[in-house]
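Notebook entry, structure prediction.
Reason for the run: the old model in the group folder had no record of what sequence produced it. Starting over properly, with the input documented here first.
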Amino acid sequence: MSSSGSEVAATESYPMNGGDGTFSYNKNSYLQRAATNVARATIDEVIAETLDVKRFSSALTIFRITDLGCSVGPNTFLAVQNIIEGVRHKYKLQGLSSQLPDFEVLFNDSASNDFNTLFASLPSDRLYYAAGVPGSFHGRLFPKASLHFAHSSYALHWLSKVPKELVDPNSAAFNKGRVHYTSAPREVSDAYTSQFAKDMATFMKARGEEIVSGGMMVMVMPGIANGIPYSRVPSGVMFDLLGFSLMDMAKEGIISEAQVDSFNLPVYAPSPDEMTALVESNGCFSIERMDLAAPGSKIDESVGGHACMLHLRAGMEGIISKHFGSEIIDDLFDRFLGKTKEFSDRLNSAFLQGSQLVVILKRK
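New structure, fully documented this time:
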């Protein structure tokens, strides 16, 4: 979720469904919440083991945290509360309880994000001061060396833009009849990979300037095991089914095939090997932990087709409506729901795959 920032010329904006209605992100983000809970133990461990608050404590009055791509809650509040509890615990472990600083949380997302819903639902018992920072996390957002902890969950998989070769009929990467690189030719996935690498380079450069030496950054995002095709993880299956549904509508003349050919979801899931190479290329951070988990296996009940439909609609309705028009949305997601039943075995097995990457870095 990004909007144009000072150092990135033409980034797109992909806000989640705002408000508090049936199809809002606020009501349909429990898959991300499960992901936050899976990541929590890892984050707690690394804070306890490697965050050296003594480096900051002598003159520190404010411990500044940002959540990048925060959306509208409630998951962002859960994530920052977990971080603050971990940091407070580390102060106690290091015998610095009397030097606890004030905590400030800077909630960042694109300017088109529903900040009204976000701030209207701030927890009344929060242990931090809150502020909003609109803008693209692909560029600089904060003053130099002003952050102690940066967090981003399920935001960095959004590309700053769709690679232009995907919609060029003369390109080998022209993505005809599909809406993603799932199940697409190698040239298509290579275009996505290249764009993600560029975006991460600008993201890491900006954070390297903003985070203090010894500060930490946590990135939670869709990921994939080294060498595994994307068609075997949950979002890959869902994107295939979305593409099938759109193509069915095109064959019936409800939309045109050209509309489908010119539409690509700007999301990407890297492997641990890719992320390692990108972090090392930046050079500002050491990798403290990198885990690949299967958060779907931690959800108490199986994730059925209806839940997948609500989850996908909350996240993707805006970008789909912008391209195809809002009048097709109900029909599209009814068809998608039918596809989840038709391909239920494939969807259920995908939820057992490692599909969530947790990367914890420390500023050198």
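Summary: The chain is about 40% helix and 15% strand.
The old model has been moved to the deprecated folder.
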